[in-house]
Amino acid sequence: MLKVIEVLAESGKSWEDAAQNAVKQATETLEGVKSIYIRNFEATIDEDGVIEKYRINAKISFVLKN
Question: How far is Cα 51 from Cα 39, in angstroms, rounded to an integer?
């Protein structure tokens, strides 16, 4: 049986790095992480019009132990 949690993550580098940060943090507290599904992409912009932070909203699935 799988369980799904919803997470928010960010990075100053890229959306891919934000996704990796989400997976890294999930695997620190959960066992059996199987997949990540990215729902939304978002970015914050600084005063100069440059992307400051890349953000994702994702679902991470993991195996439940019996």
Answer: 20
Distance of CA 20 to the CA centre of its chain: 7
CA triplet 4, 34, 13: central angle to 5 degrees? 90
List the chain pLDDT tens, one digit each, 66 residues. Answer: 899 999 999 999 999 999 999 999 999 999 999 999 999 999 999 999 999 999 999 999 999 987
H helix count then E strand count, the chain: 1, 3
Give the range of the structural domain holding residue 28, as residue numbers without chain letter. Answer: 2-63
Number of domain units in the chain: 1
